[in-house]
Design goal:
Layout (H helix, E strand, L loop, with lengths): L1 E5 L2 E2 L5 H14 L5 E6 L1 E2 L11 E3 L13 H10 L5 E5 L4 H12 L4 E4 L13 H18 L2 E4 L2 H8 L7 E3 L6 H6 L10 E6 L4 H4 L1 H9 L5 E6 L6 H10 L5 E4 L6 H5 L4 E4 L8 H8 L4 E4 L5 H7 L2 E4 L3 H13 L4 H15 L2 H18 L5
Parallel strand pairs: 1-3, 1-6, 2-4, 3-5, 6-7, 7-8, 8-9, 10-11, 10-13, 11-12, 13-14, 14-15
Helix pairs in contact: 1-15, 3-4, 8-13, 11-14, 12-14
Length: about 375
């Protein structure tokens, strides 16, 4: 099977979308009979980071709009139209994605839409009017004309169905690189004080950091929360919240540039109480590091935490997060078991090679069951 994996740029290593696309590409390439190439207009990987996945970088046109797609990229797709079996178009609420999808449709090439995002009501809260208009004019067409929607969970597919019809839906979770699994020693260090980590970009609204901080401030037992990740223009807002409520047990730290597994192993459990979230890679890294997970049900990874018996699931509100933290503290003697369950679940179910195998079967079934019609 010949597959084009397309996105506006080959994302930075360490980002969730970048790791997901790169990992899935490697997983698919590990399967017999797969010929996959990444097509992008921008390149933000260091050369050593993407050498395992073939790619072509196309020159951006001089005069561009948000809907512009490189002439070179379009010419390449047209040239290969009779050879390519499937295009995977990555992105959500992105004009570039709309243009690519309509171009693929015009040329009779089946495409799968992988938004790496969700279409829930809460996800539309910010910039609602703009998103609603864009959805009706453009995003809906991307969804409806796709051979299939590729989401991280069945719940996310159901949420998408509430907003737009689509032909088929497939579930492709994120995974871990098998080389990480082979090389890590997983030595764990736990201090006497209960140490909780939030690990991800500092997006207060999406990640529910305001909810988490307020919940932590209400816990009487001695705990400490470290918020570690890249700035999302929200660090100042987080500092203000901590100062306003005179919270002493929450620390804000910069993005961690070392090995995430080694960092995570020094904590007792992870908290990821997002208001909405597709499938954060940080949760998989924490599970592999043998951390119990406190996670909101709005996060796509939550169903895997439940299946693994690796933590506690809550609602994305202060009271539910507070109760979940208290529940986790009561279950302190179960943390080691939860951590082992989490690691084993990743190894047995969420390696990129296994995901690549399951995804390829789904792609093959899509092409057999539903021939693409222009």
């Amino acid at each position: 099977m010949k597959i084009f994996m397309i996105l506006p740029y080959f994302p930075l290593p360490g980002t969730g979308t970048g790791n997901a696309i790169y990992g899935l590409s490697k997983g698919l390439l590990s399967q017999d009979g797969v010929d996959l190439i990444v097509l992008a207009e921008g390149l933000k990987y260091e050369e050593s980071s993407y050498k395992e996945v073939p790619y072509i970088k196309f020159k951006k046109d001089r005069w561009r709009t948000p809907f512009s797609v490189s002439k070179g990229l379009k010419q390449y797709i047209q040239k290969e139209a009779s050879n390519v079996d499937l295009i995977i178009i990555n992105g959500v609420f992105t004009p570039y994605v709309y243009s690519l999808a309509m171009f693929a449709k015009k040329n009779g090439i089946p495409y799968v839409h992988a938004p790496h995002g969700v279409y829930t009501e809460i996800a539309l809260t910010k910039s609602r009017l703009r998103k609603e208009i864009y959805f009706k004019l453009f995003e809906k067409k991307v969804i409806q004309n796709a051979l299939a929607m590729q989401m991280f969970s069945e719940t996310q597919l159901e949420d998408t169905k509430k907003r737009a019809f689509f032909k088929k839906g497939i579930v492709v979770p994120n995974g871990m690189d098998v080389k990480i699994i082979e090389n890590k020693s997983n030595k764990k260090k736990i201090d006497e004080k209960v140490k909780i980590i939030f690990f991800g970009r500092k997006d207060v609204f999406t990640k529910g950091l305001d909810l988490l901080i307020k919940a932590v401030s209400q816990i009487e037992e001695k705990i400490e929360l470290d918020i570690i990740g890249s700035d999302h223009f929200n660090t100042h807002e987080i500092h203000n919240l901590i100062q306003e409520q005179n919270i002493k047990n929450v620390n804000i730290k910069d993005k961690y540039l070392g090995d995430p597994i080694e960092l995570l192993e020094s904590y007792d459990f992870m908290a990821m109480p997002s208001r909405f979230e597709a499938f954060p890679m940080a949760v998989l890294e924490a599970m592999f590091a043998k951390l119990p997970i406190l996670i909101s049900k709005e996060v796509g990874t939550a169903e895997h935490v439940v299946k693994a018996n690796a933590g506690v699931v809550c609602e994305a509100n202060i009271e539910s997060i507070k109760l979940a933290i208290e529940d986790m503290l009561v279950k302190k003697n179960e943390w080691e078991m939860m951590g082992e369950n989490a690691r084993n679940y990743i190894v047995e179910n969420l390696t990129w090679k296994d995901i690549g195998n399951r995804t390829l079967l789904q792609y093959n079934n899509l092409l057999k069951e539903q021939p693409y019609a222009t």
